Amino acid sequence: MTRHYAGEEIVDHIIISERAIDERxxxxxxxxxxxxxxxxxxxxxxxxxxxFFLCDLCRQIDLPLTxxxxxxxxFAGGSGGAVRITKDLDDPIExxxxxxxxxxxxxxxxxxxxxxxxxxxxxxxxxxxTLLDKDVRRIVDLPIAYRxxxxxxxxxxxxxxxxxxxxxxxxxxxxxxxxxxxxxxPLVVPDA
Length: 192
Ligand code: 5GP
What we know:
Bound molecules: guanosine-5'-monophosphate
Number of domains: 1
Number of strands: 9
Helix content: 10-25%
CATH class: Alpha Beta
Radius of gyration: 17 Å
Strand order of the largest sheet: 4-3-2-5-6-7
CATH architecture: 3-Layer(aba) Sandwich
């Protein structure tokens, strides 16, 4: 039976299926396990989009690992990737092997800022793992150790990526119709 997701009508094309995501996440988890054999890892993600990838990825890594989270807000109308940290990590990362787990890298400005902040805390290593890479839009060059898929310059939703804070729960990655807009208010009318 095909599952239905509220708001799914605005999806245009599914560009990465649930199955393709599963397979790629398992491959990346395998690579991380091999390349960090004998070491513990700290996986860090930036709330909220990266959560879905993080949850699946960490279960494909066969190493001792801990998780930590940051949250940021971009300055409205700002340029140069200026962001404000609204939730910092709970634990120090000094001496740790750190992997920043991202849903998507677009211009790279946000991640560039986050990496510069984390680097000052002297981790043993600092790598980037992103599920999606909109590489044609890149402004700053970033070292990406693990990359799931290269994606076109289209607005994408699903598997953590939102439109107006919704549609993160779609199990696939999709484009939306050109004039896509979600109806205001709750998508499901509550029972009277
Ligand atoms: P960057 O600083 O690399 O330009 O921006 C990265 C952030 O922009 C991502 O973490 C994500 O929040 C947002 N973003 C970039 N492309 C998309 C997209 O296609 N769909 C959604 N929902 N968010 C995107």
